[in-house]
Amino acid sequence: MTKLLIIDDEKEVGNFLSRLFTSKGYHVKVVNSGKDFSAIDFSGQIFHVAMIDLKLPDANGLSLLQQLKQLQPGCKIIIMTGYSTIKTAVDAIKLGASDYIEKPFDDIDLLEKQIDNLLVSNITSTDEHIKEIAGEVGLILGKNETMNQLIQTAYKVASKNVNVLIEGETGTGKEVLSRFIHQASQRSHEAFIGVNCGAISESILESELFGHEKGAFTGATQKRKGLFEIASKGTLFLDEIAEASPSIQVKLLRVLETREFMRVGSESIIRTHARLVAATNENLQEAVQQRKFREDLFYRLNVVHLKIPPLRDRKEDIPLLIDSFLQRYPNMEITFSESAIEALKNYDWAGNIRELSNFITRIITLTDSSRAVINADDLPLPKNISESSIPVKITKHLNTERQERNLESNLQKWTNEILTVFEQTEGIGLEEVLSLVKQLELQAGKAFILRALEETYGNRKEAAKRLQITMRKLRYLLNEKGDVDLK
Ligand SMILES: Nc1ncnc2c1ncn2[C@@H]1O[C@H](COP(=O)(O)OP(=O)(O)OP(=O)(O)O)[C@@H](O)[C@H]1O
Ligand SMILES: [Mg+2]
Q: Per CATH, is 128-307 categorized as 1.10.530.10?
């Protein structure tokens, strides 16, 4: 028989839950204090699910959670909490609780469903689901314990409507993780829209977020929907949140408090249900202390705090990541010798997973044969030394790294912008957008080819190799651009 343990000092809550679940055929035990909890004989019975109130007069729900986890590791625990203690409930999830529910219970069906789900689900099915979603968003799962705990927490809170703040150095995967959260939530079929708070000017960002009416300012030739409106049922990803100006911070705070906003130049109130995930590569708490970031906004955003460790702190994942990156080239049989892996583990990876991914791409490009074993000596790896003491040749390598990072993030930004233009503008002429895209293709193609040809002294084969395109593609692009001087 399924056994349920309920720990709550409010007798009515205990009685209510007891009646509810007894009628479903469960065996229910209710205790009203930490003292009564300590008196339970755990050796004689196994509980399948426990519901623990966070605030008890003589005990802390979190410490009961930890004790119960020790005594009966198989017991699934749900924390019961009032709104004011949601942050602690998230801490409980980090400590191993399976879920939390808010009191008062206003949706009994949901409550029953949560318990039923817990009873049927088991660890394997959760892990399988995590793997599946990670695969969908391109998040490579490793072995590092901290990272795996973090992903478990992200998975558990994904279904909750709480804001999430992701902190981590550049290239650690903040955006990938936020897509994972979106994909694991009930909002996965709705929009996931990202905006970079540091990349655009304050006034453009304001109109991006909230939209504007036609004629609201010079240049506002059309009515435009804001991202809070477009992502109302989905997820809004606020990247580089630390860069938001004080005035944007105030406006964000207002939406988070009221869930309402107005388009620029409009007085009608619009409601939004968007779920916010914010990311930062700065320590936002420090920014608050330095008065660069509003404390009230910080607390609103930071309901769930996920800190992604840098790659140098999860070196055990490096071989696995490399394998995954190599799988992008199914026609190449490249392996890394033990000494090469060791060298890669000893490198600092300031650009984290992005740098590692770019690095592997470069190795593939530089390798002549489609079958090769890479040794430590073959690695174009700079030493972990200060840049000022790095010889010119290696500095050039580092700069390329930075440029590549820049290029990748600019292209991503640009793609996002194009896609949001489509969502935001009514009556858009697709031809116009496509012609802009074509222009960029022409400009970028021309610039890249010219540089590659310059560097290879006009050697087309070598240039194509560097650009990672086929000779056919190179010839095609060159024909398009008759003004490229090949000599
Ligand atoms: N766990 C991961 N699995 C697979 N790829 C990852 C993972 N983490 C990061 N990456 C890859 O590394 C690159 C950087 O990831 P992402 O853009 O999410 O980082 P970020 O933390 O947002 O960086 P930045 O602060 O520079 O914006 C991407 O190409 C992404 O696919
Ligand atoms: Mg990012």
A: no
